[in-house]
Write a structure and sequence with these properties.
The protein is of the alpha+beta class. The chain has one domain (3-74): Dna Ligase, domain 1 (2-Layer Sandwich), CATH 3.30.1490. The chain contains two helices and four strands; from the N terminus they run E-E-H-E-E-H. The chain has a four-stranded antiparallel sheet with strand order 2-1-3-4, with no helix packed on it. Strand 1 (3-6) and strand 2 form a beta hairpin. The longest helix is centred in the C-terminal third of the chain and has 24 residues, at 51-74. The radius of gyration is 18 Å and the shape is elongated. It starts with a strand and ends with a helix. The structure holds zinc ion (2 copies). Residues 2, 32, 34-35, 37, 47, 50-51 line the site of one zinc ion (ZN).
């Protein structure tokens, strides 16, 4: 789950909470807690997967394919 910090009030918000937060706060700027990228109210919706999460998945698949590679060679 991607978390954002509202730069106007300092609140930490999960993505589903953003829409209701926009009604109670000006929230001109929001930063992603994981990767530190800055977003506006429109662009924040496009940040569905964080860079750091993607790196994690890439590393995960690398390690999986490494195990398969080893198995083929050992078998
Ligand atoms: Zn706010
Ligand atoms: Zn992010």
């Amino acid at each position: 789950m991607v978390w954002f910090q509202c730069e106007d009030c300092g609140d930490n918000l999960k993505k589903p909470k953003l829409a209701s937060h926009f009604r109670s706060c000006s929230a001109n700027k929001l930063s992603c807690i994981d990767c530190g990228q800055m977003f506006g109210q429109q662009t924040v919706q496009g940040h569905t997967q964080c860079m750091t999460e993607m790196v994690y998945y890439i590393e995960f698949w690398k390690s999986v394919s490494y195990i398969c590679f080893k198995d083929i060679h050992c078998g």
